[in-house]
Amino acid sequence: MQRHFHRTLPERLALLLLLVVTRISLAQDNVVHPGKPWLDDRGQPIEAHGGGIIKLKDTYFWFGEDRTQTNDPDKRYVACYSSADLVHWKFRKQVLKMSDPEHLGNWILERPKAFYNAKTKKFVMYLHLDGPGYKLARVAVAVSDRVDGDYIYVRSFRPLDQESRDIGQFIDDDGSAYLIFESRPTKGFFIAKLSDDYMSVEKQVAFVQAPLEGGALVHYKGLYYVVGSHLTGWKANPNVYASAKALGGPWIEFKDIAPPEANTYDSQSSMLIKVAGTQTTTVIYAGDRWTPKTLWDSRYVWMPLEIGGGQIKLPEPKPWTLDIKTGITTVLDPK
Ligand code: GAL
Fold this sequence. Notes:
With 335 residues, the protein is mostly beta strands. Helix content is 8%, strand content 47%. The chain has a single domain (38-331), classed as Glycosyl hydrolase domain, family 43 (Tachylectin-2, Chain A). It has two helices and 24 strands. The strands form seven sheets. A four-stranded antiparallel sheet has the order 2-3-4-5, with no helix packed on it. It is globular. Mean pLDDT is 94; it is low at 22-27. Bound molecules: beta-D-galactopyranose (GAL). The site of beta-D-galactopyranose (GAL) has 9 residues, from β6 and β14.
């Protein structure tokens, strides 16, 4: 009997090899490595900072600021990637390549969010448009017939006549589309419903008196959760969350999503991605780790959240896997 437990050297080597191979294939399979360069199907780092994700049928589309070093410095770019599993991303193209639309000079185009309007069958992209010193504080709207562009600039405006800097996107389970936008003079952020054709911002649903940017929302098990960051520019700070029974509030009560000294593990909120699988529903925190001097090399910090009962906890970033069918996530080496 004992013999079964004593492996010969070749047996042990074979086992070791099997372990290594399993680990490598896992690594190639479905592992997210928060904070590490995230390569697309071409082997190039994903350029989709301050991004937004929409799902069409079974495909996810990730839009974000494309800060590629070789881009024309006079233009601003949005790239689009697609994925079936949220882990492997195929570069579609630079869906927006724009020259200064309003003669602003040193101009800024950030945090693109694309929505699909089922009525008009158009894709409508919202962006934060700004000028020198971030004084313009408007949204820009660009439109396309196809998800992967080209998006054509339409106009810019101040939503609900308010200043609007960082924007966030929320699509509720009933398909309603909302824009979240930070407004400095009112010291808070708005949650606003888009018009029927999504071409304008129609109605204030909530004004949350908390000066937060990088606003991200999710609807999970009967509660709405919002995550936002304090106003420290590119520098990370302790991001906070609140929950509410209805989008209109009341929103209670802002708390840290992680130990404050961790500064959100050196990241800033951008999206909360809900994966409703056959076995569980996972909510992923998707943040940006900005490197302002080398923006093209800014990284992504994505982690499944511990969420429920009005509480959120962002665990310390570790490599993790996602099964897009079941919704199950596994943190590798959780020690
Ligand atoms: C951040 C904001 C970014 C960018 C940056 C500029 O707070 O979230 O999108 O605007 O400030 O300093």
